[in-house]
Amino acid sequence: MAALPSGTDAPVDISPAADLDAETLARLFTAGYEGYWFHIELDAVAFSRMATVSDADLTLSRVASVDGEPVAIVLLARRGSEGWVGGMGVAAPHRRRGIGRAVLTNTLEAARDAGIERVTLEVLEQNHPARELYEGLGFEHVRDLEVWSLPNGPGEPREVDAARAHAWLRARREDPEPWQRDDASVAHLEEVRGLMVDSAAALVRIAGGRVGVLQLAGQPDALRELLTGARALGESLVVVNLPAGHPASAILEALGGSLDGRQHELELRLS
Fold it and tell me: How far is CA 89 from the centre of its chain?
């Protein structure tokens, strides 16, 4: 295991996130992402929903406070011996003081003590300071993940029972799904819909007029037919954290989609 350095030039108190209510945690999470590359704003309901879907463990997640004021958070999710950092942020007035490093280090120590053997996270490729922090703590690159969006267009969605599509996907899965789209995450979601054509299947969820692709696999020609139909279900379609090189990437581009972002998936072995 890589050494977990600690220390900060600011006097901070670090405590479990479970000590705070959802409203305070939502406000802190939002403040931690102020000035980020895309807008994040959560209320108590949205924060609690996010925590439930990701299996966040608030007893292992950590909050840093300065003079009694919460100023930083690391949200850690857990599934067995696997952990995932589902969000980390420091309120703007307290950045660049070592607080983020201290609270993340404390979280990782708590994860190790709780028997978690591996922790993963994603970091935007342009977020160089965060990546330097993670790599300094021993995180290593696993793969690149892409965020794609596709506007509405003509198509004929081929809907099937979600359980049928999910079984098809599980039987053909070669690489692990990102945490947000893993089977355990999907199990927490309501109104998941299945799509299938010959040699391709997907799970999608429609919210706010947007078709979110949860899982996707198949042969290129079949994937094109599937995505053409899926985009017709809403005002737009989005695929978050699609592994780079996935055959759907070229199809989304050919259909007029946009590559909106790229992240690096990193992991830290704790044992």
Answer: 14
Q: What is the pLDDT of residues 25-42, one digit of tens each?
A: 999 999 999 999 888 999
Q: Does residue 214 sit in helix, strand or coil? A: strand
CATH code of domain 13-116 = 3.40.630.30
Q: Please tell me the distance from the alpha carbon of residue 80 to that of residue 62, in angstroms, as a whole number.
A: 19
> Which helix (H) or strand (E) is 167 found in, with range?
helix 162-172
Query: At 168, which amino acid appears?
Result: W
Residue 260 phi/psi, 5-degree rounding, is -90, -15
The domain locations on the chain are 13-116, 146-265
Closest CA to 210 of 123, 148, 262, 144: 148
Local structure of 126: helix, strand or coil: coil
Structure tokens at 180: 């947000």
Contact 83, 179 (CB under 8 A): no
